[in-house]
Amino acid sequence: MRHLCRLAAVACVIGAAGIGARVVEAQGQPPPDLPAVTVRGQTYTPRSILARNMGTEADQTTAFPPHRVIGNIYYVGTRTLSSFLITTPEGHILINSTYERNVPTIAKSVEQLGFRFSDVKILLGTHAHRDHQEGDALVKQMTGAQVLAMAEDVPALREMKTSGREHPIDRELRDGDAVRLGGTTLVARLTAGHTRGCTTWTTSVQEAGRTHNVVIHCSLRAPGTLTPGVVSEFERTFTLVRSLPCDVPLGDHPAQYNMHAKHATLQAGGPNPFVDAANCGLETDIQEAMFRAALEEQRGGRP
Ligand SMILES: [Zn+2]
Question: Of 59, 130, 209, 292, which is least surrounded by CB within 10 A?
Fold first, then answer.
């Protein structure tokens, strides 16, 4: 199972290398690491994004120090797979269970922060890939939480059976639906492309007398083959994501928002480094550049 999970994760992250690359791969040679795009002075390729997002097996399964991000939002994930806890007086919301084998690690991080994992009332996710939502059934078993999922991702989630359990889904969401608990409201935005129901979560928090708009991004990385349907999904998604009010960009892989560096700055004190409006669009810029380059490659170099 672990081997299969790793394969799924690689499939999750390798993408823009394209059809030609897969032919070469089948012949036992490494695929060309293309396309390469440069955004704000840094060059990205499919393999560099894979390495950045997933790291090593140990990175995927080792707890990152749990910490408060801003307001009532806490990080409880691993070094490379995000899991966010949103606390309220009426129980908590968890976004992304990640791999099933990580659920005890996430539970421990929640407890280290002084909260009870059994108080998780609602489980949400960013998208129907195992590295983000494989553990949903175990979280539900441990907490009794309601599992809410974007309708367009439900078929893929139903396929995601783990340890013989059905994938739990208690309520299907539509674009713009609100999820409310204990005075906190999260809004689900359909940002399809990476999966059919890829979900970006927005909310606002109060800190130091100010209101901050928080955006928890879904992966925006394009799959290997860009069908007309996927292309139209991404065209809508890139526009939508850029329109969201944002002061605090977060993402389903920590590298999408430079968590490690920001966490180091957090330890030093001073202004909250997660308030970073200037970089709200950086990950979108990277992934849109990769998408357009891959689309051009797929069309045989014709723009
Ligand atoms: Zn994915």
Answer: 209
